[in-house]
Amino acid sequence: MFYGLNKILKIMLPKGLFYRSLIIVAAPIIILQLTITVVFFDSIWIKANKGMTRSLVGELKTLIDFYNNNEGKIDVLTSIYKKNFDFVINVTNESLPKAGSERKFSPMDRSLRRELKSAFGNNVYWFNTVKYKDVVEIRIKSDNGVIQFFLPRDKIATSSVRLFLLWITLPSLLLIFIAIIFLKNQTRPIVNLAKAAERFGKGDYINEFRPSGASEIRKAAYEFDRMVKRINRHLNQRSEMLSGISHDLRTPLTRLKLQLAMLNQKEISNQMSKDIDEMEKMLDDYLQFAKTQAQEGTTSINLNDFFKEIEKEFGYKNLHLKINDKFSLIGRKNALKRCFNNLIQNGLSYGKNVHVTLNKTTNRLTILVEDDGPGIPRDEYRNVFKPFYRLDKSRSLNKSGVGLGLSISEDIINSHGGNIQLSESKYKGLQVKISLPF
To answer: 17, 18, 39, 139: least buried by Cβ within 10 Å?
Structure first.
């Protein structure tokens, strides 16, 4: 039972911290004000209204009895009541109206009906509390006709109800408004920290981040900032180290190429040149893998122009683009170009055609890269994402490389907050499904 109730509350209640905090602050205030209002109406206003109505009906009962016993002296009494109590009393020979005008949910009408019925009985009275703004009309049937009373509304209703509701409502709204301002200021640092973490998780480098808010939030933001700086420092050191290694390795490779060019045994020279070229290609792949997290700012990318630029830049003749709408994405353009170029180049290496299709959902962008090559066995789908992993069967993802193409692509997609999956394409080849957030 409690589990089901807890589940329902989780569905109904808001998910955001600001709105949950606002409920924690506002709910006790609202409950307290409702309790005070109910207690006031029940114990004070309704009882006071009932007492005033009972006193008024007693006066009307006295007037009716006096009129029944002293019909000729009623004018003197009515003039006295009109002068001292603002009562207007008329005696008519008209019958009581048949249509009732009582409001069902009005405490004032209900109390007046109850007291009149108790004093005079059924079907001998009629009243209207809505026809006039500040006047109540009451008609009572006597022995010699119908007596019509016009009396001030404040004789049966207290005038402090609206003032009480005003004083109850305004302070509550003021307190809730102040709570909203303070909660906004307290939750803003948490939101900023979450946005900074999201940006950093997508590969965007956070240069300016100021811890703010309460001491606990400041401490978390300060530690996050230190973590970001440590990771950035590590990446920079790795890039600098690999750049130095690249420079040191290319120099002896260049000397070896010059020496091989001077050899007379051309067959041996050609074979060794191929080995050196393969070493250079391996070195380039190592550097490309290490630079997937190189510092690059995010920009808005028009994917229609983006894929056409790839097609034109690398001269892909068998690349078929299926983009029916304008799609934009915030990301690191060079990194994404490296990612999709790897996938397209891989598809064209083992198939004749590559098809790129873009689809959009509510908050995700799906990109399909499909080829008509031999494909990859299903049990190898996860292994091919491992660095330096190469297939021996059916298809090698890098014939001339070291098995880093899909590793680089997965790293880039993950750094943008997306995911990448492999499956069989409708062209009997490999399908690479990429999902990226807007």
So the answer is: 39
